[in-house]
Amino acid sequence: MQTILIINSKGGSGKTTLATTIASYFAGTNKKTAIMDYDPQGSSLHWLKIRSKGANTIHAADAAAQKGTLMRSLQMYVPGDTEKLIIDAPAGVDGVLLQEMVKKTDYIIIPVAPSAIDIHATACFIKDLLLKGGIRKQKTKVAVVANRVRKTMPIYEPLERFLQVLSLPFLTKISDSDQYILAAEQGTGIFEMDEKDVAKERKEFEPILNWLNPDADQQTTRPENVVNFDRARNGV
After folding, report:
1. Is the separation of the CB atoms in 88 and 37 below 8 Å?
2. Could you give all domains of the chain from N- to C-terminal order, each with its CATH number?
3. Cβ(111)–Cβ(13) under 8 Å?
4. Are the beta carbons of 87 and 45 closer than 8 angstroms?
5. What is the pLDDT of residues 13-60, one digit of tens each?
6. Calpha distance 193→191 (Å, rounded)
7. Whose CA is closest to 158, among 182, 124, 192?
8. Mean per-residue pLDDT for 57-77?
9. What is this structure's pTM?
10. How far apart, in whole angstroms, are the C-alpha atoms of residue 184 and residue 188?
11. CB-based burial of residue 86 (10 Å sphere; 0-12 exposed, 13-18 middle, 19+ buried)?
């Protein structure tokens, strides 16, 4: 099972958008996919609840409802045959829970919003991951994604330089697009929407999928077995 952790200590970075988009893509490629939502707000779980019954299946795991601070065995929350597990982490996670999450994770994606405050907080969080999270020891792959970008902004240059020093990749810049809002409202993902409406968004997302599947022959424009959301919703 490949485990992908979407995390940032600061709220408002768009973790759920990344988690649901990645999950819907993998589900569309016939991978047995699950989302584990640690956020008390349960945004990923709400997205799953409003998905069309005809859409590709994604298992829901409500980790926020569990008591205690330690991350328990993943098998308690997801089916044993799960191939892709995406974890939507809560804001402000640290300490033992952070270490336990990293221990179970193959890939970590850190989304960062386009503000000086968010970028500074993200840099500090990455330091904590390296010092306290045990990333180097676990050989977990880590990358950063600029999220909710309204335009090309030089504000990311200090963060990119910081990541270069640490040899961590800055994958892509995801635009602040209405298509993501529409997807969230409908319980779908950009790879389940009409390609002509989301061509730009798919292109922006492509580096993330390539990073997660370095040896795969990517078909990021439209997974072969993806369900057309509008047709599924209308029962066509």
Report:
1. yes
2. 2-231 (3.40.50.300)
3. yes
4. no
5. 899 999 999 999 999 999 999 999 988 889 999 999 999 999 999 999
6. 6
7. 124
8. 69
9. 0.85
10. 7
11. buried
